[in-house]
Amino acid sequence: MSGAAHERQTRGSLIAGGLLLAAAIFVADLRLPLGASVPSLYVAVVLLGLWSPVRRFTAVAAVLASLLTTLGALLSPAGPSPWMAAVNRPTALMVIWLAALGVIRYKSAEKRLIAERRQAQAYLDIAAVPIVALDTAERVVLINPRGCDLVGRDRADVLGKDWIELSVPAAERARAREVFEGLRAGRLPPGHHYEMRILTSRGEQRLVEWRGTVTRSATGRVGGTLSSGEDTTEKKRAEALLASVVDSAPLTLLAVDRSGSITLAEGTGLQHMGFEPSELMGGPGSEHFRALSWLAQPLQRALAGEPSMATGELRGASYEVRATPLLDPSGHVVGALAVSLDVTERAHAEATLRRQQTLAQLGELAAVVAHEVRNPLAGIRATIQVLSKKLPPTEEATVKALFARIDALNEMTEDLLLFARPRPLQLAALPLEPLLREAAGLLTRDRRWSSTVVDIAADEACARADRLVLRGVFLNLLLNAAEAMSGAGTIRVSIAASGSTCRVSIRDSGPGIPTELRERIFEPFFTTKHRGTGLGLAIVRRQAELHGGEVSVSCPPDGGTTVTVTLPRQPPGA
After folding, report:
1. CA–CA dist 284, 194 (Å, integer)
2. Is residue 239 domain-resident?
């Protein structure tokens, strides 16, 4: 039943009930002597206004009760005490109107409270961080869309529920209640910062940094708590990865004498560089040492008495070297010592961490932009549609062009939201071949790409993934491949499973990607198209990473571009 239908049913039931109750009291009043206090029972009819959605119900009920009380005084049989009738009737009228005044004031206060709560909810809805307000019983009274996204539930499924029982893991509920009571009792300061795990509807635990404070009524009475949070799960994972990489990274230790000849070459890092210690021993002019010019330069500065640091690359790996002078007891430089560390994985982890921080900031921006752009666009489109009916047929092309521009802006806004605030994944065991064939069918049904051939070399591979999201990833990559070939040619797709991963490679026969652009194509808003958001491949990479996978691109020497999506493997039925 809709809200309007329910309101009409409630209104009808209360009016009917009020009339029946008033009629019963009136009949009783007519049968009893004039001195009886039956008219006071009309207060019950007035009090029905507490539940009535009709604003004038209470006033009408009070007027009706007053008329019936007066009419009863004229028609009721005389009683043994005339003075009681003279007292009871005015008293009943006074009680009726006092009750009516009380109900009217209560309903006015309730109306103001509802309006204030709606205004507060409107402010919360555009906030880019999860915000949750609880009452004194830990029940949710307000929650914004980001808070709903955090727990993976609709607002209707959260409001009125015990927040701690609903969304805090059992092991942390005692601490959560301790924080809640500490805020309410004033033992914790406003803006208190604390970290708490949140349990989503899918059973996943997210780590959230909260800032909490108390809410107060107009009289200063504590009414509950208000907390805003930041989901730091991915940030903490990246930091943990960074720490583990640093702890396990291979080191290389090199020492040189005053002439620059290498006197010591040790460490597991040499094997990663592809050298044996004996190959580096000797003077700085050796062939192998010249290949490490980025390492030789800080050593030379250290021999001049200046500690230094440098970075370099070798065989696709990144290295960081720190060199320091070696001094004799009199303080003269007699040599230098350098420590080289393979920072390839650390650099990758740092880049991931920076990207996560950028995405968090972009998410805040996207929420504001979407709210400020999407709703006005809908209004503008509706207005143009109304105005177009009054324009001559000669302006039809202009109106269509305006609609196309508005729809393009709306599509850009949707892409921005999809990139900045992707929906929670619904992970399940997913065979990849049928999904790729479905994506290929969607591509070739478009007239622009009907001449494109998609050749899928299938291998039985099953990933743990979200079906709709992954289909969008593959369709996006197939569309890019078709565009690179101008719609004519064959896209070759291969599926392979190995160990704990499965890989899907999509190769086109287009012109390829220039070397200087390959690292940038996954950057948000970077595009080489005349019209485009530059978010397509950025969304692809982010969706793959949310699945625990990755995306890479290469351009084989014989032409074309190959994009490979690597995903966690899950055997069917597991």
Report:
1. 55
2. no
Where among 307, 342, 377 does a domain terminate? 342
In a domain, 574, yes or no: no
The whole-angstrom separation of Cα 314 and Cα 334 is 29
Per residue in 488-510, pLDDT (tens digit) is: 888 999 988 888 888 899 999 88
Mean pLDDT, rounded, for 324-348: 78
Q: Say yes or no to pLDDT of 429 above 50.
A: yes
Distance, CA of 548 to chain centre: 17
Strand duo 452-457 + 489-498: pairing: parallel
- Give this prediction's pTM: 0.40
Whether 96 contacts 46, CB under 8 Å: yes
Q: Are residues 333 and 305 in the same domain?
A: yes
Domain boundary among 308, 342, 376: 342
Instruction: Give the whole-angstrom CA distance, residue 78 versus residue 91.
Output: 18
Q: How far is CA 261 from the centre of its chain?
A: 57
**Statement to judge: residues 498 and 555 lie in one domain:** yes
Furthest C-alpha separation in the chain:
131
- Asked if residue 538 and residue 453 are part of one domain, the reply reads yes
- How far apart, in whole angstroms, are the C-alpha atoms of residue 554 and residue 545? 18
Domain span at 330: 250-342
Residues 118 and 179 placed together within one structural domain of the fold: no
